[in-house]
Specification:
Blueprint lengths: L6 E2 L1 E4 L15 H14 L3 E5 L5 H9 L9 E7 L11 H8 L4 E7 L2 H8 L3 H17 L3 E7 L1 H7 L1 H13 L4 E6 L6 H14 L3 E6 L6 H10 L4 E4 L13 H11 L2 E2 L3 H4 L2 H11 L17 E2 L2 H9 L17 E2 L7 H10 L6 H16 L8 H12 L7 E11 L5 E11 L2 E9 L2 H13 L10 E9 L10 E8 L4 E8 L2 H26 L1
Parallel strand pairs: 1-10, 2-3, 2-9, 3-4, 4-5, 5-6, 6-7, 7-8, 8-9, 11-12
Antiparallel strand pairs: 13-14, 14-15, 16-17, 17-18
């Protein structure tokens, strides 16, 4: 831990360009602008907006981003050095970078003689001239110039003199930062450390690092580079990028702030990093990675009984940082592996004070239910209801009297699903129906029609995920299934679970629990107000 930062590390985010090269990841113009605003709030120093010559969306981004009035970040347009047969001031790509009207520009240059010869099809000497001409031209136009030395580490291992010459020419030509790229993601941490140190000794410019994760070492290599003289770090939110991705800024930033004598965005802004990470996932309609360090939902989740007992006595026993420092939260998971400590913790969060016998009974019940196929570690809503019922403190606010679901496929291929439900609510009988995209959606719609008139708070609740797991697959079509439903409102997120041989009935059970838990949360919130 540190109190007095010795060195500022400048962060460069390339989610909007390099990150968008990840399989299954795509952003609209509006989504790119939304993520840019989040990065600015986080305090990232540079936001790479894209390649203005590659497509109309990127070109339009540079026109629209100025309307965001960014406070912390500079936007950079991405391109390449001039072509071998074109003067810098006539090169279409360099002109496009100027037309983007960004304060910073990033140009990629070959640092490996293999790529110079076989990919560019030019000579090593001409490649150096292309770098010099391009940097000088952009500097003459008043730009901050970042030179991404592509394949630098591979190039250095193949021909160290030439790779180092690329870095020296870039710096001598006026580049503000020479970025050493592990483009193939194959460099080892010791190699990155040694090579970065040598470059820093030989160039008169800021040195940066841009690592890919093909060996799973992108974060480690980035930290090694920073510890050996680099002061500029490139990466993406959640490590998104081509193949195995890039350096994950949501991991490397907390390491810099909490584990090194350096700083990047500061401790106060660090508390926003989990929020920004999840915003990026949600915006791109991608699933969260629960085990993602620092920001994942499992990063501070404890399941083993001995672990939970120790954590309740001292959080430092099984956590290396405090979850609140990165905007995350600690969770004690309820399962057959849990001890009494986990159950006691949940009772405390529910503002309940059970006796020893009740805790033991509930833990025994959990183990019995999990033996039947239930799983409560992702279904805290269902467990909270179980605990309230066991304690005799929960009053049922409605009764499910029955449901009917039908699906018809017409000859033209159209599929129509209808659901009807019968409920008793405060002595009133409700009988409603709804159509849906499928049986669960139709049931959810019918339940809402029946309940929202009595409980308007349900209008603020929505289902965010639906997961099905076959518990005993050897039973084939007669197998039990476990349905876990994730739900959320404006301030809470919770999970509920249902188990049955009938997937519809398992879904019904999880849906009813989800709604009941929302009403329980509303009641608790009212009491606090």
């Amino acid at each position: 831990m540190k109190d007095n930062p010795q060195k500022q590390v400048f962060l460069y985010d390339t989610t909007l360009r390099d990150g968008c090269q990840a399989e299954g990841f795509s952003l609209s113009l509006e989504e790119k602008l939304q993520i840019a605003a989040q990065l600015d709030m986080l305090g990232v120093h540079y936001i790479e907006g894209g390649y203005p010559l590659s497509n109309p969306k990127d070109a339009e981004f540079f026109k629209q981003v100025n309307k965001l009035n960014l406070r912390n970040s500079q936007v950079s347009a991405f391109g390449a050095t001039r072509r071998a047969d074109t003067p810098a001031d006539k090169d279409e790509g360099l002109r496009a970078l100027l037309d983007a009207q960004t304060p910073a520009v990033t140009i990629v240059a070959k640092a490996s003689d293999l790529h110079v010869n076989k990919v560019l099809g030019t000579t090593p000497e001409e490649n150096l001239q292309m770098i010099e001409d391009s940097v000088k031209f952009l500097k003459s136009e008043g730009k901050t110039v970042l030179l991404d030395a592509e394949h630098f580490f591979d190039g250095y291992l193949r021909n160290p003199d030439y790779a180092l010459k690329v870095a020296e020419v870039s710096a001598d030509s006026g580049a503000d930062c020479v970025v050493l790229c592990d483009t193939n993601g194959g460099a080892l941490t010791s190699q990155v450390a040694d090579i970065t140190a040598k470059v820093c000794q030989n160039v008169q410019a800021s040195v940066g690092v841009h690592c890919h994760n093909d060996c799973g070492l992108a974060v480690a290599n980035s930290i090694a580079s920073i510890e050996n003289g680099a002061d500029h770090l490139q990466g993406t939110l959640n490590g998104l990028g081509e193949r195995c991705g890039n350096t994950d800024l949501c991991v490397v930033i907390p390491i810099i702030e909490l584990k090194t004598p350096f700083t990047a965005i500061g401790r106060r802004k660090l508390r926003k990093i989990t929020e920004v990470s999840r915003f990026a996932y949600e915006t791109a309609n991608m699933m969260f990675r629960g085990a993602q360090p620092f920001v994942g939902s499992s990063a501070f989740a404890h399941k083993g009984g001995l672990h939970v007992d120790a954590m309740r006595k001292d959080s430092g026993t099984y956590e290396h940082v405090h979850p609140e420092d990165v905007g995350n939260e600690r969770r004690f998971l309820i399962s057959e592996l849990s001890g009494k400590a986990a159950v006691k913790d949940l009772f405390e969060r529910l503002k309940m004070d059970p006796d020893k016998n009740m805790v033991a009974d509930i833990l025994s019940s959990v183990k019995e239910k999990e033996n039947e196929g239930y799983q409560y570690e992702a279904a805290e809503g269902s467990f909270a209801l179980l605990a309230r019922r066991a304690a005799g403190t929960y009053r049922k606010l409605f009764k499910g009297d029955g449901y009917h679901v039908s699906t018809i496929k017409h000859s033209n291929g159209d599929i129509v699903t209808d659901a009807t439900v019968k409920l008793t609510i405060n002595g009133h009988r409700e009988h409603t129906a709804s159509e849906g995209d499928g049986p669960v959606n139709a049931l959810d719609g019918a339940l809402r029609k029946a309940l929202e008139h009595h409980y308007p708070c349900l209008k603020k609740m929505q289902l965010t995920d639906y997961m099905v797991r076959v518990i005993n697959p050897k039973a084939a079509t007669a197998a039990k299934v476990r349905v876990v439903i994730q739900s959320a409102d404006e301030t809470h997120t919770w999970g509920t679970v249902g188990v049955d041989e009938n997937i519809i009935d398992a879904s019904w059970e999880a849906l009813i629990d989800s709604i009941e838990y929302k009403l329980l949360l509303e009641k608790d919130d009212e009491q606090r107000r």
